[in-house]
Amino acid sequence: MADEPQGAKLDTEAPRCDCRVVHKDRVERAIARAPLPEELREAGELFKLFADPGRLRILAALAEGELCVCDLSAVLGSGQSAVSHQLALLRTARLVKNRREGKTVYYALDDEHVKEILRVGLEHIAERTASS
After folding, report:
1. What pLDDT is recorded for position 8?
2. CA distance 111 to 98
3. What pTM, to 2 d.p., does this model score?
4. Is CATH 3.40.50.2300 the right assignment for the domain spanning 49-130?
């Protein structure tokens, strides 16, 4: 390719196995422990929500504690309408929850799993960046 540095090659293929032996016990274990198709579909939908940097910023902010829409708008530097829209998506997916105190609605992560997913993802990125 014209944009590649001299002598650089893009590795676009995964290494292939040259053996022709199927490891029956491993295959059976993988099949037996495989998530159900519906579970995989739902997980895919969940991970789509994590694909948006703006939503990730909201989740990261809420990992530090509950915040109202005004607080989140200030943290993100975005309008309240845009933040509210993203919060509605996150709430529908049960990634965030809310509670009302008078006229103020506070948002928080739905549970520790959400915080853990975010933490593990960011940790994985940090490790990959450090080893580059």
Report:
1. 56
2. 12
3. 0.80
4. no
